[in-house]
Amino acid sequence: MNQEHDRVLETAAAWLAAGHGVALATVVRTWGSAPRPAGSQLAVREDQAFIGSVSGGCVEGAVIAEALDAIGDGKPRLLTFGVSNEQAWAVGLACGGQIEIFVERID
What we know:
single chain; alpha+beta; 3 helices; five-stranded antiparallel beta sheet
């Protein structure tokens, strides 16, 4: 893919090799206005360290919290974040958007 993607996966692999719990979040689908394209990734370590981005900062906190839960319970999750066109227009934005992010513990 690209250098950022490679750096996220290399870092996640290094964290795993060092014995850390790690989760990987991946943008799997977008609609309308979305800050990051499908395929964007964020790796999270059990001590809240992270690398990468799935939203340009908009929802990273929520995704990191879900990733930490996934590290703990081993259950993958599909997260959806979005703003309808009506909500976007009400605050002066041209259009709404939605992103879906798959979060899973990696071993």
